[in-house]
Amino acid sequence: MRYVVAVAETSNFTRAAERCRVVQSALSHQIARLERELGARLFERTSRRVRLTPAGEAFLPAARQALDAAERARAEVAAAAGEIRGRLAVGAIPTVTAVDLATALHRFHLRHPQVRITLRSGGSEELTDQVREGVLDAAFLGLPLGVRPVGVQGRELARGDLVALVAPDHPLAGRSHAELSLLADEPFVDFPAGTAARAQSDAAFTAAGVRREVAFEITTPDFMTRLIRQGLGIGMLPAAFAAGLGLPTVRLSDAPARVEHLVWNHPSPAAKAFLDALAE
Question: Taking the model in full, what pTM does it have?
Answer without folding.
Answer: 0.73
